[in-house]
């Protein structure tokens, strides 16, 4: 995300190479807290900012991996949680 240039971008890194998956014209205001949720369901990636859908993308090349948070400006990241959701939940 860029406050200066007013965009949000979803990227992936495979074998050391970054590629942009999606970009839009939504930036942010410096000092404004944001809640960012990323869901991965099968081949689909869904991104929400403050509950609003921002991106959805299908990519079958990502079978496993990790996450990274990056900023070129002053920012704080807190309460980062990575959860694995059981694909076969128990119904009680």
Brief overview, please?
By secondary structure, the chain is mostly beta strands.
Explained architecture:
This protein is mostly beta strands and 92 residues long. The protein contains no helices and 5 strands. The chain has a 3-stranded antiparallel β-sheet, with no helix packed on it. A two-stranded antiparallel sheet has the order 1-2. The radius of gyration is 15 Å and the shape is globular. The chain starts with 7 loop residues before the first strand and ends in a 34-residue tail after the last strand.
SSE map:
Layout: E1 8-14, E2 17-24, E3 36-41, E4 44-49, E5 52-58
Antiparallel strand pairs: 1-2, 3-4, 4-5
Strand content: 35-45%
Percent of residues in helices comes to under 10%
Contiguous low-pLDDT stretches (5 residues minimum) are none
Structural class: mainly beta
Strand order of the largest sheet: 3-4-5
- Could you tell me the radius of gyration in angstroms? 15 Å
Shape: globular
Distance between the termini: 41 Å
Mean pLDDT: 83
* SS field, number of helical segments: 0
**What series of H and E elements makes up the topology?**
EEEEE
Q: Let me know the number of strands.
A: 5
- Describe the main β-sheet briefly: 3 strands, antiparallel
Oligomeric organization of the protein chains: single chain
């Amino acid at each position: 995300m860029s406050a200066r240039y007013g965009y949000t971008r979803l990227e992936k890194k495979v074998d050391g190479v970054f590629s942009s998956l999606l970009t839009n014209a939504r930036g942010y205001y410096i000092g404004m807290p944001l809640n960012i949720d990323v869901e991965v369901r099968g081949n689909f990636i869904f991104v929400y900012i403050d509950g609003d859908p921002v991106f959805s993308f299908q990519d079958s090349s990502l079978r496993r991996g990790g996450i990274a948070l990056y900023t070129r400006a002053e920012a704080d990241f807190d309460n980062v949680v990575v959860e694995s959701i059981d694909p076969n939940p128990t119904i009680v």
